[in-house]
TrEMBL record:
Residues 4-118 form the Response regulatory domain. One of its GO terms (molecular function) is phosphorelay response regulator activity. It comes from the Bacteria. This is DNA-binding response regulator, LytR/AlgR family.
Length: 233
């Protein structure tokens, strides 16, 4: 299956070149090309792509800021920066760019970037874990990495995910659901489980995820402290 891509560059010749390389490559599919970073961002509000070939220096919005905006929106597209200036390479990798293409570049250089994209996509696929939860009469597939926290409601639970604004509410107990989760999840009080990777800050008796504060009860404090210690080592 081909990887979907967009290309973004304000220079017409540069945009034409990178787009032609994408079209030439058998592993990639060019979805669209943009000469404006802002237009590309607008497109990505309603469309998902596997990778983005992105110029760094653009008048309306530079590539590094573009990548930061994607990260804040939890966009999973892989980014390859393209620039005539090697000084931007460090900035690129600070925002977790997959690769950096230095202009002028050859098709061989481009293919090396594509190989890095393919490797990263394979690794991401291997890391993904799913569970199935019953909602009404349907079995719904849920990516564990997207769950932020879970709340108990007696015989039901509310599962809050980055994939949607409203929670999933399956008919199951918190204990039953906890048995389906991996080691990234930790119960912090009688009625709540959190995804440890989503924690923004924590103190002695509380933690914060996406500006929401959670209390850590004494019963679960030792386990939380052990988890916290393993994270800092």
């Amino acid at each position: 299956m081909k990887l979907s891509c967009i290309t973004v560059d304000d220079e017409p010749f540069a945009l034409k070149l990178i787009s032609s390389f994408v079209e030439k490559n058998q592993d990639l599919e060019l979805i669209s090309s943009f000469n404006s970073a802002k237009n590309a961002l607008k497109f990505l509000e309603n469309n998902l792509v596997d990778c983005i070939f992105l110029d760094v220096e653009m008048p309306d919005l530079n590539g590094v800021e573009f990548a930061k905006i994607l990260a804040k929106k939890n966009q999973k597209s892989l980014v390859v920066f393209v620039s005539a200036y090697s000084k931007y390479a460090i900035d690129g990798f600070k925002v977790s760019a997959t690769d950096f293409l230095l202009k002028p570049y050859s098709y061989d250089d481009f293919e090396q970037s594509v190989e890095k994209i393919k490797i990263q996509k394979r690794l991401a696929t291997l890391e993904e874990e799913f569970i199935f939860i019953k909602i009404d009469s349907k079995q719904v597939k849920l990516n564990l990495s997207t769950i932020t926290y879970i709340e108990s409601m007696k015989d039901y639970v509310k599962i809050y995910s980055e994939e949607r604004e409203v929670p999933y509410i399956p008919l199951m107990t918190l204990k039953k659901l906890s048995e389906m989760l991996n080691d990234n999840y930790l119960q912090i009080n009688r009625s709540q489980i959190v995804n440890f990777k989503k924690i923004d800050s924590f103190g002695k008796n509380h933690l914060t995820i996406k500006k929401k504060e959670f209390s850590i009860s004494e019963k679960y404090r030792i386990e939380f402290d052990i988890k916290k210690q393993s994270l800092s080592n």
